[in-house]
Structures are given as C-alpha cells and as structure tokens.
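Note to self: the last two entries modelled the partners one at a time, which told us nothing about the interface. This time every component goes in together.
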Amino acid sequence: MAGLIVRAVKSVAAEEGWSQEILKPVLDRGLRLEWPKKEEFGDLSTPFVLGLSKGLGKPPRVLAEKVLQAINHDPESQILLKKIEIAGPGYINLTLSSSFLLEFLEAVISSDDLVEKVSIPRSINVEFVSANPTGPLHVGHGRGAAFGDSLARILREVGHRVSTEYYINDAGNQMNMLGKSVYLAFRKLEGTFTPEEKSRLLGDQDGYRGDYIPDIAKKIRDEQTLLSPEVRSEALAGQFTDRVQSAFTHVAQTEIMAGIREDLRRFGVSFDRFFSEKTLHETPGGDGLPRIGHWIDLLERESGGIVYESEGAVWFRTTAMGDDKDRVLKKSDGSYTYFAADIAYHADKIERGFETLVDVWGADHHGYQARMQAVVKTLSGRVGKAVDLKVCLIQLVSLLREGKAVSMSTRAGEYVTLGEVLDEVGVDATRFSYLTRSHESSLEFDLAKAKERSMDNPVFYVQYAHARVKSLLAQAALRNVRHESFNVQDLAVLSEPAERSLIRLLAQFSGVLLRAAESFEVHPLTDYLTTLAGAYHHYYFHHRILSSEEKDRPVMIARIGLSIAVSRVLKKGLSLLGVSAPDTM
RNA sequence: GCGCCUGUAGCUCAGUAGGAUAGAGCGUCGGACUUCGAAUCCGCAGGUCGCAGGUUCGAUUCCUGCCAGGCGCACCA
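The predicted structure of the combined assembly is written out below.
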C-alpha cells in the first residue's frame, strides 16, 4: 500500500521537478500511514503532503490533488482501493476495496501465519528480571517479567531472532550477607544464636529477614546432605569459616533460585539462558585473566583513554558521554565493581553476535543508563559494528487492595511475592493487568480488582470474546452447520458496516505488532485486543449469526467465518501476552 | 544541586515520527435478557491536556523556564 503511494509521489515529483532534498525525508523513512480514528476518514490515511507543502511553497491541498491523480492512474489502485479523498488541511484518505478486505479476511481464517514479518530481521538479546538471588520475586519483578517475556514473544513473532536471558548477580557482598543471614537463622534454630555473633558477622546491618531465610535454615538442619560433615560441625560449633560462608551462601542461592525459577515457570516466563555473574569472575578470558579483567585490560589498552588508571584505581571516562562523573571499574584493593562485571557481561553479549541488546531494568536503575550506553558504544566500536542498546525502564508497581495501599519494605522482608499474587489472582489476570499500561508509567495493581470480572479487569472481557466465538461454533455444530473452508465468494455477502469495521480492525493486527516491536512496547497490543474484543461484542449483540432459515444460510456461513477470524487474532494476541484463550469460561 | 520518569474527564490510563471535533474503561445516572453465553450491549453527563512563554500554517506532542509527585546521583550490588 505504501508502495503505491510512493510510486505516485515519485511520478508527480518527476513531472513537477521537485527536488530530492525535499522528498528525501518523506520517502526515506517510509511513508507514514495512519489508521484514522473515524471510519468516515477511510481505512488508511496520511498527512505527509502537509509536511511537503512548506518546502515546495504550494498549498497542501493542491499537492494532495496531484498525488491523488497519480494514485488513480496506477493500475494497482483499481484493485486495492475503493475511494481516495482529500480531507481537512490536506490528508489523503484511502478507503480499501471490499475485494481486498475479503481476500485479507480469507487469509486470516485459513492462513497459518497471521502476522507480517519485518523486512530486516535482527538478532536480539532480551535480558530481563535478573533479580538478585537473595529473595523471592516480588510484584515489581513480576511486571518486568511479564513485560520482557511478552516483548520477546512479539519481537520473535514479527521475525526477529530473539534470545532471552536472566543475569544472576551471584557475586559480591550481597551474596555473602545472604549466606550469613541463613547461617544466623541456623544458629537460632540450634539455640546457639547470640547477638554478639550477629554483630561480629553483619556489623550494624540487619541482614535478610524474610520468612524464607529461616525456611532455608530449617532445610539445612533437616537435610544432612546439604552440608558436608566438616562444614556442618564447624557451623554447629559457631566457627564461621570461609567454607561455612560459601556453603551457606551456595545452599541459600540454590534454594532461592529454584523458587524464582518455579515462580517464573508458573508465570509462563522462560529463558533461553541464565547467565551467572560469578562465571565472569572465575572463567579465564583469552589472556588467562578472569573475564572481567580481560575486558577491562583490553579497554585500557585500546580505548584511547576512555578507560584509565588514577589514584590506584581504574576508571571509565563516562563524563565523555554525558555522565556527571567518571566511574570506578577496578577498586584500589584490586577487586572489580559491579559496573565492571556488567561491562564484561555486555561485552560477552556483543561477542556472541547480537545486533540489538535490550535491557529491562527497574526504574530505580535509570541512573545507570547513560553509562551503559557509553559502554556499549565503546565496545561495539571496537568490534567494528553498530550494536544498539535499548534500555526499557519499568516503573514502579504500587500494590493496592480495594484502593488501599499494601505496605511493602524489601529490607524488612515485608513484601508481597509474585507467587502470592499468582495464588490469589491467577496468571492470566496478573499478566494482562501488568501489560495494560505503558511500562513508563507507574502502575496501580489492585488485588481485589484484578480478580473481579469486570472492565476494571479487561482480561476477562477479551477472553470472553474468544469464548463466545468458540461457544458459537459449538452451537453451530449442534445444528449440523459445518463448513471447512471460506472463500472470497462465501464471504462477499458480508455487507453490514459493523462487519466491515471488524475486518478493518483485523487488518491492523500486524501493524500493531510491528509498531510495538519497533518501539519496544507491549501495551499497544493489550489495547488493541481490548478494542477488537469490544468490536466483536458489539457486533455479536446486534447481529444474529446462527439461523435455521435456509435463505439466511450464506450470511450465516460468512458470519461464522468472520467470527473465526476474530477468534484467531484474539488467540494469537493473547498468546503473545502469555495469556490463555479458553474455549469456555 | 544535577539527572531520569510522570502530570490529559471524579478515578485509572490511551493518544501512533507536529496534524482532522483529544479517546477508552471504571464510577454516577438512565435503558436492553422468551432468541447464538447479559462475564454482554445502548445512552447521558464529564476537559483551560500542571502553569507561563517560544518555534510553526498548525502543539497534548518539539524547545525554554517554573510548579507538583516518584526515583536516582558509592572505590554498594
């Protein structure tokens, strides 16, 4: 369709001698086609001549008229279009021909592939959740999980090569603190806990305090094989040796990660890879150094001063890329910062050949963005190919119950876990609710409303539309109405405006997905499905589909076909959100 | 102090790379079930798009400055 218009513009340009500079911005970016809000404005619409008018010094409507003539002369327009109009300040509004719409509908009913693919597939890595294995996932992680997983599904659906990844922050002080917290809980169980020991291990810090800590301690006490006999006897004797530290840390992390994986599985989220930060510290790189050291040294040598040594530490010159101060990579005690590990991790991803890196972070990490962009820019410059980093910042989720805030404090271990929300609300409603809003807006998640079957909670509205079609088909089967294939002739009897509107909406599905993939957003799909479900409910209420009158049979068949098309798109869309499309509710 | 996100109907939010009369749902009020599932549908009301400037033929959208809320600014992770 865009091709048709581009051809027309070019032919007019040739005739009128328009300069390339003026046309370039319009044609390069591809022609922008909008879906007009009102059907009286046609099925597709473009305001692009408005942008052209200034450069050419002619009124937009005059230009639009020329383009319109050229489109009319194109033989393809006879097939695709029913009507072209100029409206408003200079919009060109296109109304699709019914033969085009019916062919499209036929394809939706019978084709295996409902979704258009991108012309240039990319190799994309989507990293999300990546919660520290120091406690169960909470509602905030849930939002990131739903978003990242659905985004990955959408990117894959439109034809990109997508790999999903969870980065486990399993190195550093937080993990040691976790091990100590479990150790102290273990001592408590044994009745040998003392406040002195706690302050010796943790100083004035509290450690981790959630319910899961004593649970893990109990498990260690009850399952002999979790600790070696030596470690166990040291722990029982109150000797907090290095190997006690590492054994308790290891068990705690394993248990917690198992819980996280289980929550993710229930939530319908899967990862192609779990990437351990610890392996970056341990595995030697090409020159025998740990991989972090490998990358930092390499950058120091090759980055032309972007990585430099000063005051006994190694720094990254992030100020050169807009950060407000330079950041330390290697501390003066020789250990690496978290930032250094993250550089190594992103270097690794780039080395594995991804062209686009998507990082899904909690919004509280936004201060990190400028520096990661700087890193990826530097690293990809080194590899000699442009690697894009797209950071998606997921805003806060505030949990409510009947409008009242549920108080949460991660520090004190008082928070509602994702698992608890899934128990109470269910997977479908939770995922859908998370994805109804832009990830850049903070989200109010009301547990009571999320369970309600009302438009407060549109997941049921969309699922119901799908179930309605299935129920209709079952009803049709009972009446011995069978029809395997629907061709354009069968469908041509659809003449109601509401039917045309539905087909028009179905035709937007691919575009919604392509645009969502381009802008790395998910909620446009959620909105679209709600709109489509609404249009079907409206249609269903006002039009009788099944009929026992023989004369109505052709219309009945066509309406069944249309209903099938709607249900297929709903089902595909819901599946991209990770939401089921049940046949009955 | 610096930086990021947000400010649109009573509430929760959409608003497509500057374009047509700014849209949904909820809530309020009033209607529609002998008929394929009423978990549905139809209607009414509701707006100075935070405020003030600027760019433009045209600004909710871009720029500047304020105001308000949230979140960041470690040789922590």
